[in-house]
Amino acid sequence: MTATASRIHVLDPRLANQIAAGEVVERPASVTKELIENAIDAGSQRIDVDIEQGGTRLIKVRDDGIGIGEQDLPLALARHATSKIGSLEDLEGVSSLGFRGEALASISSVSRLELISNAEDDPRHGWRVVAEGRGMEARVTPAPHPRGTSVGVRDLFFNTPARRKFLRTEKTEFAHVEEAFRRQALSRYDITWVLRHNQKVVHQLPSGHSVAARERRIASLLGKNFIEHARYIEREAGGLRLSGWVGLPTHSRSQADQQYFFVNGRVVRDRLVAHAVRQAYRDVLFNGRHPVFVLYLELDPDVVDVNVHPTKHEVRFRDGRMVHDFLYSSLHHCLASSKPAVDHDADGDEANENDGGHQQEGVAENAEQPRWQQQGIALTHSPDRHPGAERVRRFMQGYQALHPNHEETLLTPQAGGSTDLSANAMGSSHGASEVREAPLTMPADDPTAPPPLGFALGQLHGIYILAQNAQGLVLVDMHAAHERIVYERMKTQLAAAKGLDAQPLLVPVSIAASGAEVATAESEQEAIAKLGIELDIAGPETLLVRQMPALLAQADPEALVRQMLEELARYGRTHQVEARLHELLSTMACHGSVRANRRLTLDEMNGLLRDMERTERSDQCNHGRPTWTQMGLKALDRLFLRGQ
């Protein structure tokens, strides 16, 4: 390919704007987003959005904001003209949604755009501006209009057929427009919003400042199920404030389509935020499912950079590690407080999912086994049926070495029973244990009221516990529930240990690393050492793993270290070692919890219910499966046609 001798020249203004439009204007939804953001920045109290034919024929956004004066209208459609920033200092602490000054110019270059505005209270003093000709000269004419601004965008991509042919069907394009509208409507509850499609009202959302008003808007936009299965969170620390609604793990979705995160009112999709959320939901979410949330992070605008991407969907935090830790700890604490309570679905509409790998087989009954195996920690009586059993057995022996009193401290003594659940419900039928008593946990506000999960009535097929509470019938998957109880107590014991016991490798593992990985290993030596890993730098592109946590002696050192370094470089924190340890404890808890077809006494069943009420995250097992469900009296009445 030969180079031509073309002279350097200035691009035609319309061509330059069309090139810029390629970054900002992808489809009708992106136009709608830009116009709505301008309306919000204008201080509007009401925003009306009218769409025709999915936005390809017309996109019109009308607001009642401050408007634009006649003298400023010629610049309204000019590129790099804005009233929102005036200096580098303004850009570094920008609080408005728009600031680049190129959206309207870009949109007008690929459509027929008309802007009518009035900055005065007299509706006769409005003005219209359009951009015409190849030079996009602004033409201003009088046009009556109430205070505020209306922007109409017609025939999108009429002059760029190559872009227009990539648009989808009217239904698909409007779905994207509606999603853009939904995101903006969730960002500002103090604004009244109206969305119409082909002259039909799709959404009409009144303004409201109370939590109840906000929940009504969320229910209107995301469905009542979202609010019914979400918890409100509000937490503040270190100049950061997080508020919003977090979906319960049992109310998850097959795709990440109900995840809304706002930074100072701006909707963002950020890798650091996504990672913190994933870690918070790590061991309470069913495999392959996605959490739902509407969350608002507020912080000083000076410590967040919004000038990262033309679409302004990404941000960069000055102290990403602090933001990550704050988000993770806040969400982790909120989900941990999700214990059995009376706000569960009273009609029992939750669907039980597949077991996800749970083992339901009985525990070997062998008097010659070690005591901890007799008490339910035995992995299986048939190693051939579980190929990984020997590996987990070795892990368990390592855990036992760290916690020799495991069998005495793992389970809470039960009240009023003839035996300890740890011996009879978990272990051999002829493994005796001393009697220990503990008071039942009752609601603090009314000691005479029944506990949230009520009292046991009996067992169903040796799998489910049936209990009666104030709302009606409670059904508990006893294996799944007890698995979570055992798992959480193992995690507590491990966290209480003074550091992780490390085991030197007989032969250090050499890792061919990139320069970036070596730099991360060097700068994060202290954090890596706290995880029980000894990582030496043996050369500019070589790392040596000399030591691993004892409980992870069988893990792949290279894979673990690479994932750990990647997380440290990207997020400033790594949860890889913790995740591996918790995965191990989860497996141990699964094999160490009460099995199906195990006969329990009523005292033992009630003891398990009380343990559930005391245990964090006990609404789900370690694999994210629900552990219990509620069938209210109204649902039972409907089932038997009572009162019909």
Descriptive account of the structure:
Belongs to the DNA mismatch repair MutL/HexB family. Residues 456-600 form the MutL C-terminal dimerisation domain. Residues 218-336 form the DNA mismatch repair protein S5 domain. Keywords: DNA damage, DNA repair, Endonuclease, Hydrolase, Nuclease. This protein is α+β, with helices and mostly antiparallel strands. It has 22 helices and 22 strands. Strands 5-4-3-6-2-1-7-8 form an 8-stranded mixed β-sheet. A 5-stranded mixed β-sheet has the order 9-10-13-11-12, sandwiched between helices. Strand 11 (259-263) and strand 12 form a beta hairpin. Helix 2 runs parallel beside helix 7 (170-187), helix 10 (271-280) runs parallel beside helix 11 and helix 17 crosses helix 19. The protein is globular. It starts with 12 loop residues before the first helix and ends in a 5-residue tail after the last helix. Residues 341-392 and 406-444 have low confidence and may be disordered.
Compile the SSE list and pairings.
Blueprint: H1 13-24, H2 28-41, E1 46-52, E2 58-63, H3 73-76, H4 88-92, H5 103-108, E3 112-118, E4 127-132, E5 137-142, E6 148-154, H6 161-164, H7 170-187, E7 192-197, E8 200-205, H8 211-222, H9 224-228, E9 230-237, E10 240-247, E11 259-263, E12 266-267, H10 271-280, E13 293-298, E14 304-305, E15 316-317, H11 320-336, H12 371-377, H13 389-402, H14 406-409, H15 421-424, E16 455-460, E17 464-468, E18 472-477, H16 478-496, E19 502-512, H17 515-523, H18 525-530, E20 534-539, E21 542-549, H19 557-571, H20 576-592, H21 602-614, E22 628-632, H22 633-639
Parallel strand pairs: 1-7, 11-13
Antiparallel strand pairs: 1-2, 2-6, 3-4, 3-6, 4-5, 7-8, 9-10, 10-13, 11-12, 14-15, 16-17, 17-18, 18-22, 19-21, 20-21
Helix pairs in contact: 2-7, 10-11, 16-20, 17-19
Domain MutL C-terminal dimerisation: 456-600
Region (Disordered): 339-371
GO molecular function: endonuclease activity
